[in-house]
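Hi, here's the filled form for the chain we discussed.

Project: internal
Contact: R.S.
Residues: 94
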Amino acid sequence: MLTLTENASTAVRDLTTRAGLPDSGGLRIAESQQQLGSFELALVPEAVPGDDVIDTDGATVFVSPETSTALADLTLDADPSATGAPGFTLAPQG
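And the returned structure, exactly as it came back:
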């Protein structure tokens, strides 16, 4: 299952707080419909039925069922020095 680094957890918490999402909200990752092999990130008020829900230190990430297998062995990270919206990256779990 996808894991989050401390930087990613902090970035997700910050984004959801700034967006004013309810406690049930989080960052959703799904395969892009427009660009094959890419992922789309969106702040959503709740999971879509069937999503995997990952909660790490109060940061909630939803992963679509179609994307879950592709991300199963990866870690989501964020660049804390990014200005504006954080830059998220995926890397193999170490």
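Let me know if anything looks off before we file it.
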